[in-house]
Amino acid sequence: MSAKGKVLLAYSGGLDTSTILAWLIDEGYDVVAFMANVGQIEDFEAARTKAIKCGAKDFILEDMRREFIEELIYPAVQVNAIYEDVYLLGTSLARPVIARGMIESAAKTGCQYVAHGCTGKGNDQVRFELAFYGLKPDIKVIAPWRDASFYNRFAGRSALLEYAASKGIPVAQTKAKPWSTDENAMHCSYEAGVLEDPDHTPPEDMWGLIKSPEKAPDTPEQITITFTKGLPTKVKIQSSGKEVTDSVEVFDTLNLLAREHGIGRVDIVENRLLGLKSRGCYETPAGTILRTAHISLEGLVMDKELRKLRDSFLSRSFSQQLYDGLYYSPECEFVRSAIPASQKNVNGDVRLKLYKGNTIVEGRSSSETLYSADAASMDVVEGFDVEAAGGFIATSSIRLKAHGLNQTRKGLGGVDKQSAHAGGK
Amino acid sequence: MSAKGKVLLAYSGGLDTSTILAWLIDEGYDVVAFMANVGQIEDFEAARTKAIKCGAKDFILEDMRREFIEELIYPAVQVNAIYEDVYLLGTSLARPVIARGMIESAAKTGCQYVAHGCTGKGNDQVRFELAFYGLKPDIKVIAPWRDASFYNRFAGRSALLEYAASKGIPVAQTKAKPWSTDENAMHCSYEAGVLEDPDHTPPEDMWGLIKSPEKAPDTPEQITITFTKGLPTKVKIQSSGKEVTDSVEVFDTLNLLAREHGIGRVDIVENRLLGLKSRGCYETPAGTILRTAHISLEGLVMDKELRKLRDSFLSRSFSQQLYDGLYYSPECEFVRSAIPASQKNVNGDVRLKLYKGNTIVEGRSSSETLYSADAASMDVVEGFDVEAAGGFIATSSIRLKAHGLNQTRKGLGGVDKQSAHAGGK
Amino acid sequence: MSAKGKVLLAYSGGLDTSTILAWLIDEGYDVVAFMANVGQIEDFEAARTKAIKCGAKDFILEDMRREFIEELIYPAVQVNAIYEDVYLLGTSLARPVIARGMIESAAKTGCQYVAHGCTGKGNDQVRFELAFYGLKPDIKVIAPWRDASFYNRFAGRSALLEYAASKGIPVAQTKAKPWSTDENAMHCSYEAGVLEDPDHTPPEDMWGLIKSPEKAPDTPEQITITFTKGLPTKVKIQSSGKEVTDSVEVFDTLNLLAREHGIGRVDIVENRLLGLKSRGCYETPAGTILRTAHISLEGLVMDKELRKLRDSFLSRSFSQQLYDGLYYSPECEFVRSAIPASQKNVNGDVRLKLYKGNTIVEGRSSSETLYSADAASMDVVEGFDVEAAGGFIATSSIRLKAHGLNQTRKGLGGVDKQSAHAGGK
Amino acid sequence: MSAKGKVLLAYSGGLDTSTILAWLIDEGYDVVAFMANVGQIEDFEAARTKAIKCGAKDFILEDMRREFIEELIYPAVQVNAIYEDVYLLGTSLARPVIARGMIESAAKTGCQYVAHGCTGKGNDQVRFELAFYGLKPDIKVIAPWRDASFYNRFAGRSALLEYAASKGIPVAQTKAKPWSTDENAMHCSYEAGVLEDPDHTPPEDMWGLIKSPEKAPDTPEQITITFTKGLPTKVKIQSSGKEVTDSVEVFDTLNLLAREHGIGRVDIVENRLLGLKSRGCYETPAGTILRTAHISLEGLVMDKELRKLRDSFLSRSFSQQLYDGLYYSPECEFVRSAIPASQKNVNGDVRLKLYKGNTIVEGRSSSETLYSADAASMDVVEGFDVEAAGGFIATSSIRLKAHGLNQTRKGLGGVDKQSAHAGGK
């Protein structure tokens, strides 16, 4: 074994992590390259070959698609997770699963260190490392892009290329795109490069996953999603009659449909976790459809006050925790433990129309509906005591009247004051 | 004056409120009919004629469009108000303004009573009456649809028609639509009738305001909205070069654009305030565009922690208060007083593409941006101390490590347990 | 069976519910009197005799002390439940247990109705009835104090006395106290009468449970409370060496100690649930000690972020739900289901000194402490990377600097502005 | 001027900051010593003499008592600020004022740097530095206890003493106490040393400010505090008839009373902001009385829903922000801007009895009370429509019944299930 010990490196097959691999060996470490299949399009065999060529002692490929979908994405669907009203957390959700795969593989291969190629300004370094420490408090982490001896040496692409040449590391001949991407089963993200100007419209050829609404078919597709305890357990496609029920197949099917129909692109300036703002473009096909569908079904079956609590407690907390890399934290364990109790009744079907970027709810039904057409009907007297409504209003108005009287006493309230407040009227 | 006194009636010109008008006179009241112009399409002169024909002593028409937009809709834009993730509160926002118009007109015309034709199961009775009591605690309210002597007598449309005939009240010959609507500058709502089955897809001919995405033009429109302190102060349409800056014109312009491009339809089963669930379809053209644009600009200029506070405090509270009819309450006055301080920096432009139901952000800019391309850039070392990020991670991980160690001590934590928890792996 | 059916009446043995009992029989019902032992001082046999004498078909006494303490009070201890910063919810917590006893007894005795003697302005009518409906949605409820035929007839004590005399109902010869009380294992409450003036100091002879701090012993007592998963599982009294471990005994022991040492009196003007304010005085002996002890132990063992979530989610929600009579609601079921996960680590001992109204924490210890003396020590360099603190500050200050610069740009920020804002300086 | 420039040092007169002063000069800086009078007991002239003797170019003493009380403490009183249910934030509140004094003095004296003697593990380094950067984003900060060249050289008291001797710095002959303290007008804190064992009872001679309840007088004192817009504007002492109205005098008077009557000691294990837990003992005399009094008055005059919003929004946020050193942040500016609107009606008197550690509310009154004795009275039928209460209950129970029926349908709910859930019954 090398003098300094053994490192498990999160390897992407690209120039950066290949350089890091070779550099770690130069620094005196043995290196095991690790790659997680979380649904990205990737030539895994080519990556294995390249890693070994760079000097890796071993290459580990873990297929983590199912646990990514079932353990991370599906709870996010259950709580309608969203960050800053726009971002569906595709990258954030993948990190805990990859980090766990790394810690497990590090244990199996006897690595004392884990290393990653995340930049020193971004969110992912935080997400990976907080996950590492939460899972294995005594793990040692190497982050070359925060290590002056690395980042000073490799500042700029030419230094990387030169080093790669010197080490015989093959470099893809394709021209680097003027942005960077991260892809998995949930989404593909685009940031940096030309996107750093938040007023620069994303070029159409950037979007790699989802058709533009303009190019999506003129004919809508209709589908039905069945939820069981808040989880999507069946998708039926009307045009073909096809049905799928396996969790991964359900997600993959929705991904294909949404990509075809232009659903799931967003463009946001978001607050990163280290205090900077950052511009990101995201394509989240299945996640976008599922969010609309799940919210719609909850309208039918979830109690009003439970929904308020779930929204302000579970949804906001879970979204923030995932964004902030806190999946393996006491507070996220707590939040996750509370999700199932909120989803007991979220059973039923949602019918949707997919058309050029739109996910249109066409109907929803459930055997556990809390909705009563008779009670709600304006045309039916039965099922609701309208005089009780008067009692509700009378009691609710007590404190408003007390406030109104107090305002009047102080010469502050009443119509005149309110109008004056209106300004300019 | 009549024996019982004078009533100001919220009059719509329809069969219900015309019947109520005549019935109030039968009951011994003098009646003044009141109508607010809050942007709905309406033949106000026909309504005046009909009210007088029904026996009203007077007919008052108040043009409240500007105060509706400036005092109610614009604060909702500033806080990104939304109810249950879907409903933009079009009806809820109109009620406080109409109620204020009524209380003011009641004072001017010497009415001791106000009356409305809202049903006894719905939200609007609550919204109107809580507003009345908040503005004038000693006002007396008549709600015929909660009065047994009225609702027992007029149960069903035929009883209303018969009474109308007996009173010489003209009835529109158009066949009643199988749903009911409420329209104002913010939105048009549809509920009841065939919509009471939440799995019944809304018929295409129901949607009266907004083109369907399918029928919207194949050519997108591009616009720029300028915000000043969170309020839309200019709209520029790229194709025509037209610019508008007056608050009402801005709103009207966005309404026309959204209606043309199929933007702003939703369909929801929502939790009404009296404990029932209800299905509603809403068309909110300008409001939908403004929400997307405002959120996008806030991403650029609003501080992260201020945004969290604003979201959980102002946005949720204001939305719930408006839905619940609590505009004239101590808590809503408090919330409204806090809005401006959150919007001081929300100044800048948002560029949008409108296309078949989609509001696509193409860019945003501001002279008060908190975004720094250099600091955020992955390619630039300057502007951010990457070693500080390591310090942040180290301090943030302290309690996660303590938790991890405690879990391990109890035989609960670590990788194995977490994996086991994953279930089935 | 009587024509109208059978009623289970919550019977207290007092003049009000005895009158209601006789009146229900007059109205044509059969009546079963129900009494719950929730720890109040009461002559249950005398109550039984009196109920039968008043005409009850049966008298049911349920000993519900253990379930009151274990199912209601202990979760309140776990979440540090408190209403409006002062009230420990003694009455609120008893209602769900009593209501459940009533619904169970009504089922066993074939009663179609349940009745109670709560006033029409108070909280308890709401708490009882919402619990009844939550447990048995089709139960029929009789609330005489909201029934005009009852309350008009029995307005004033003399009408009640006259009726009692006419029915041969024995009336206690003791002079009525100028306030009303409610007692159970958790607390004794005082309200109404002379207390209705919120500036009237409660008379010393009102307080029936707890010694005044002035009259409490001059010698403090020291005790140790052991918590297991947030529940008090042992109390040790230092002076006597006595130890108790049974949940009811633990609670009773703490009650005795607190009563002796003047601990647990409060006086509050609170917001009732129907919109009125009300003045109440409460004696909560054991509950006051447990709250202090539990909070102190949580300081040692509970994670910081978990604590924040628990406080804003579980504690506030549970307290409000209990106050509002919503124990048997979807939202309270949800909250209760989340409590245990927050208390897994709340294991350890708290040492307290009880002295003249004060509960003084003298120390706390736990085998699951998250506290590290070495890490926290100002004198030890080990266990904490002080340079990491610098990194934390540097990243945390990024957005504050951006804000400061923006303020300066606008001529708003910086020292001068802040000083000016200070006002008057 | 020295080569490296000029430093404003927060100087305490103790061994640490005297060493830092001399060391900074060794390092090539000119040093100005700064001291803020925030109400601590201190020989300021001795400090000046010592600073000059240590080599300071100048010594600046700023009397900041009034702004500390009016700008920091009083808003904390208005929101009932508290951290983790126990700590009244005495140190946290002083930091923003001292930091502002330093930035202002640095500007006046031409210092490019500010320096402090806070340890590298504690909260105060964060509070000072975030305040510095918020007020003057380009200020340069020197924190010797995070600088390896300093902390490695001065690890341990003997190194400090030796260096002091070499520099002719006078050292107090009093034996160092086995804990450290921080004192200001709001409180005195004790931590470290023997207190690092959280199960070590604080020695009686540690508490320097407040008498122990045991030693407090046997005779209570009665006082009346008058609040205006939530601020204490008058204190009247019953025994002497003395009245004070100036803000500083009010606070000082309450401090004296509380110290005499044993009020305001707490002992807590709290969560520091850098992820560690820490044990602190605090004496907060006036603050403890004011909190009790202010909460009591709010009960009388503050609307129920406004109170909920204020508690969950202003109180929690402000407390956390102050603890975390975020006074000069966008979010705290926002919170502070919202406080006055919540306190408009908080006008009135609170009568208190002070006795051996207890602050006992004896009554409260206000001309703006929202309390109505008639409406609340159980004995009066007027002022409240009891049948409306029935309507409130009926509407509130709608969703509980729907839930109950759904549970029954699923075989989950109802009495039996609830009892079973009770466990062990």
TrEMBL record, chains A, B, C, D:
SUPFAM superfamilies: Adenine nucleotide alpha hydrolases-like, Argininosuccinate synthetase, C-terminal domain. Residues 179-401 form the Arginosuccinate synthase C-terminal domain. One of its GO terms (biological process) is urea cycle. One of its GO terms (cellular component) is cytoplasm. Residues 6-170 form the Arginosuccinate synthase-like N-terminal domain. Homotetramer. NCBIfam families: argG (TIGR00032), PRK00509.1 (NF001770). This is Argininosuccinate synthase. It comes from Ceraceosorus bombacis.
